[in-house]
# Entry
Amino acid sequence: MPDPRLILYFPQSNASYELKPGDETVAGLSELCDLDLRRYFGGQRLRTISRLHFKIVYIEDGGYAIVDLSSLNGTRVNDEFLLPGVYRVLRNGDYITLANSEEFVIAVVADVSTASEIFADVPRTQTLQIESPSDVGLRYIHGLDQFVVDGHRIPHSHLSPLEHTLLRYLYIRAGRICSYDDLARNVWGYQRLDAVQNNTISKTVSNLRKKLSSLSDGSGHKYIATIHGRGVKCRLLPAQPAA
# Structure
């Protein structure tokens, strides 16, 4: 039986990159990367991809897994945002989206001759299936650009544009502490924290919590935590009680 291989197909440039068993491939915008994405992508938004964006490793049972390398704007497999440092097994027909942009899509295939066929069949507006209000957790439906908290969809009119942007920024970086400097730069668009007051950020975070809790009691504090003196952190699931 031939060794398994994995091919990354780039529809924008009609090019492919093959990984072989044993390979560990780091991808990003750097000549130090095994896979320099500047060879496959272009355009003004290219800088939204990180220098070290993701890594793919071979796993012993004959497959491959991808992990986000704490990239600035995130990595998605199908409609699932990857948590930094958490591996996700790749399967034939998956598609990888970088920096939440349809300009930076990579199809995962086993045979390059079928790559364009598989990519054409990929649903571009997949949504999460919401089973019931008893579902626990914070989720994001990419095709609708909409959040779900504990099974309740958050209406677009429920959050202000700034609150929605803040929630998306925190969600993509779930599990990491986002400093006030990070939020000032990447949510408010200022280069320095002194351009936006700390209490302005704190007030917006507080309003976001209240609006989440109005849909599911207590969810604001369950999923959006302020870490005193350090910043703000998003949780996708409620914190587990200490043993």
Observations:
- The first strand starts at residue 6 and ends at 10.
- Confidence is low (pLDDT under 50) at residues 112-134.
- The helical segments are 115-121, 161-172, 180-186, 198-215, 219-223.
- The chain is about 20% helix and 25% strand.
